Amino acid sequence: MRVAVAAAGATTCLAGSADSTWRKVRAGESGLGPLTLFDPGSTGRSGTVGEVAGHAGLTGGPRLAALAEAALTEALAEAEAAGVDRTELTGAWVTVGVSLGDIFEQSGPDVELDHFWGVVAARLGLTGPVVVLSSACSSGTDAVGYGADLVASGIAPVVVAVGVDSLEPGKYTGHSGLKTMSPDRCRPYDADGDGTTLAEGACALVLTDADRLPGTPLAELRGWAASTDIDALTSPDLSGEGAARMLRTALERAAAPRPTSPTSTGTAPARPSTTSWRPPCTRRSSLSGTSLSPAPRAPSATRWARPARWRRCSPRTRCVSGSPRRPRACASRTPAGPARPSPPASGRCRCPRAAPSA
């Protein structure tokens, strides 16, 4: 089955539609401007953000609902014009990717990430199942991947994938504390880039089988995958192992032969050959609840070639830095080969003394 993008809708700091946003991106225009939604306070940041115009006075859940509704309204109209049946659209599965929403701004009882969705569904007449995914900056992308899984497996003939998030004081302050934001504005692919710039917006894609569309789709999803590259709570794995595994899985999936139905024999496109493929709702993943779990990691003889940067041991056999992955293990290097783990008998690290660095 060929998973196609039948239609798209978006509202961003550049424009209020997908076509206008893309046109301005290609023209090199910027949607960044001064922060007006709330007071940045004494964060030391520039106050430059990407606000969506036209929603003055809306914050929290109402703002999230307005952003999502704007993107969905465009996507649903475009999908119907492309030949997708209106009944299938209103009853379609919906995958919603949202990073944090406004959960840090709640003063009362805890709320779900999708607490705003009921308003959106009621206004647009959407009655299908809803799956909510939260994986930080990749939430929207994971929503598309999960939706593609639903279509490719035959579980859903039509899926509406939505990514949405709004600017909120808690997220702004948090990123300021982590020093991830540029004091000026972000400069992607610039050697002198010094941080990110926060923005808000929403995008919606309507996914379906390409063969069901009478015309040419906007795009076709050939391969997708997800992994994790976390090394600590706020830093990536500098080895790039997780990102490389994700890219390999997506490329293998894109190149794999495609069965004529979810029950056909042969190599299925949803997973590389090292993993048996099953519909997403029958499998759980530790990666933010998505079904896009990576292939099992193969045993490696050089697995311990890197822990020297996680935990270094002094000549007195005392650990001088910790490991988020193996907090009670230490490693040493010898000229004869890769580093070897030396599990401690207690809380104290036991490392060979005369082990020069390789």
Morphology call: globular
Question: Which runs of at least 5 residues are low in confidence (pLDDT < 50)?
Answer: 261-358
Label the structural class.
alpha+beta
User: Rg from C-alpha positions?
Assistant: 24 Å
Strand content: 15-25%
Lateral strand order in the biggest sheet: 5-4-6-7-1-8
Number of strands: 12
Largest sheet: 6 strands, mixed
Overall description:
The chain has 358 residues and is of the alpha+beta class. Helices cover 23% and strands 16% of the residues. The chain has helices at residues 18-26, 60-81, 86-90, 117-124, 139-152, 169-178, 241-255, and strands at 3-11, 33-34, 48-49, 93-97, 130-133, 158-165, 201-209, 219-221, 230-232, 235-236, 331-334, 337-341. The strands form 4 sheets. Strands 5-4-6-7-1-8 form a 6-stranded mixed sheet. A two-stranded antiparallel ribbon has the order 2-3. The protein has a two-stranded antiparallel ribbon with strand order 9-10. A hairpin with a 2-residue loop joins strand 9 (230-232) and strand 10. Helix 2 runs parallel beside helix 4. The chain starts with a strand and ends in a 17-residue tail after the last strand.
Features of the shown structure:
about 350 residues; alpha+beta; 6-stranded mixed beta sheet; two-stranded antiparallel ribbon; 12 strands; about 25% helix; about 15% strand; disordered C terminus
Ordered list of secondary-structure elements with their pairings:
Elements: E1 3-11, H1 18-26, E2 33-34, E3 48-49, H2 60-81, H3 86-90, E4 93-97, H4 117-124, E5 130-133, H5 139-152, E6 158-165, H6 169-178, E7 201-209, E8 219-221, E9 230-232, E10 235-236, H7 241-255, E11 331-334, E12 337-341
